[in-house]
């Protein structure tokens, strides 16, 4: 991809152009609104106020925009798995740490993670993203298994199911979280950890 | 919509045609694979092995197929809110009942609920569905508030957030549940109720 700056078709002096990051941000917004498969390069160009050829200065096409967006979300999530909170100490604490960090990442990278979680596997790019998601899920499942082994998690629920439910709860926030309306990342992370590990019941806190 | 039977374009004797239900089932499968906005009537006709005019015997178009599918999911969920398990007894039990019934409905009506949960509000049909989802969420939030009032739920978490997290966990199963692979509806419902109300911790069961 080129690093050449993109100028808007309207070309008004003083009006900022797009760098790759801001171009990607608009593309991801449109993908989330209309679905990736339902978004044409014409629609993208129209929303960006750019000609298609201006977009092609930056990326080879829609697929590359999708791959950049999905990797942004995946790289952030995988980075969290290598932090000391996820790799040191009792496994139950690593699991809580990763759940909490995932909430923060989902909120910080909301449009990118939203796109990632809606990927269906319709292309090689999407299938690579699904494979990396499975790798992340396997990391979480391993944390659950080790926490059971250490006696800190209920052994009667299948670890893979626990991993799915816990991160299902985390991931559900893409469906209802809206910036600047209601709870912040900390409040949501606290609530998820509290509900998932200690239960909603009044007496179990 | 007409109740006239649809015959396949291939028209081989003995080969079954589509009634509205089976036509809808195929359409919903395609919507889920390609996204509703990314699915044209031509694609639908091709997948059904029907001419477009054969589809138009049954429905006025893509929008009507979407509305029928979304209402099928919504009607099942709303029916559960009127069952005695959701309307009688301590509110904590009503909430557990509705969570459990929702798991059963999601699994029984998986493609329809999947479509419902991916609706973005791009048309009047989608906005009506979103309004009914908000009505369902309000019903759940009321159960949570009453359960807090009865002293059975942790009062320190915002009831609307509890409702979202609990049903976020339930709804997450559309992302990973596959029929005939792994846990059945009962096992999943048990795990969700156990995790959400009692916590995953070993000692809190």
TrEMBL record, chains A, B:
Residues 40-59 bind DNA. Keywords: DNA-binding, Transcription, Transcription regulation. It comes from the Bacteria. Pfam families: TetR_C_24 (PF17932), TetR_N (PF00440). SUPFAM superfamilies: Homeodomain-like (SSF46689), Tetracyclin repressor-like, C-terminal domain (SSF48498). GO terms for molecular function: DNA-binding transcription factor activity; transcription cis-regulatory region binding. This is TetR/AcrR family transcriptional regulator. It comes from Gordonia desulfuricans.
